[in-house]
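Encode chain A's predicted structure.
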Amino acid sequence: MTDDVKIGLAGFGFGGKYFHAPLIAAAEGVQFAGVVTRSPERQAEVAQLYPGVPTFASLSELKAAGAHAVAISTPAETHTPLVHEAIGLGLAVVSDKPFALDAIAARGAVEAAEQAGVKLSVYQNRRWDADLLTVKKLVEEGRLGDVYRFESRFERFDPQGTPPAAGGGILRDFGSHLVDQALYLFGPAVTVYAELDTTAEGELDSRFFVAIRHQNGVLSHLIGNWVEGAPGPRYRVSGSNGSFVLNKPMEGQEELLIQGLNPATAGDRWGVEPESSYGRLYRGDAGTPIPTERGRWDTYYPAFAAAVRGEGEVPVDPRDAIASTEVLDAARISARTGQVVIPGPVGPAGPVA
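Encoded structure for chain A:
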């Protein structure tokens, strides 16, 4: 395949509208093939925002129209069946997070794609957050010395709202990113401990704390909270030669997309953080500003398209999603039992350290 890769989108809710469609439409080597949605309101939105981009009632219609791939951005519980449906149609697949509701389902989807010879990736776009890229560079350059603790938070203050059911609860939603980032930076988990609170209705988790001991000895402390009046630092990374602290709650690529911009229309503004939001490298009281790396969510879909053309690997290995889902499963078991849990391909009881 040498022409543009035709990528469609399943779902046009918040995630599809803001996190996928603009980046698919702006990606080099990609043609926006259409949106699968049965909602008349969302069909009208697609027509307004992307004139000429068709809408379809099903994945099979999208495939029949010539699509090579599809990005799935639908409620969490539909991800696994839609991934399997797309694989059966021969469509390369990008699945939004959470990739699956448990590790068994995640492994089944990955193995189905491998057996069918279909490209599959997970939309862990926050591997290309400006702030995470900055942490990654500091760690790789050894400027922190030997890292022993990684603290990472997704916190917001929304006392009137509740975590959207579409995300499967805040542990699956925020936790999918935080766990993936921790494993991406520091490697496999050997133990997991977690604390988990639910909403007033008791249906969805709204706060969590997860501690991961990595195989290399690093300890990750991950916090997600839907109603936090005083959010803590986005990152604190502690090492033998100093600590990096970043206080800004969230980098700016998401906000640009919500404003209606994309990498093409934002131009030089895309992924660039102001000096006022730089993190600092501390050695005692003295803090040295560290320029933030440029955020690069815009690289995901061009890389995925290249993989579909046979020109490289997918940007996120789907087996990474199995590993992160195993950690999330272990976290839920730990929160229920109060014990430290060894993550792995287990049933609901789980092995306990």
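The CA atoms of residues 63 and 91 lie 7 Å apart.
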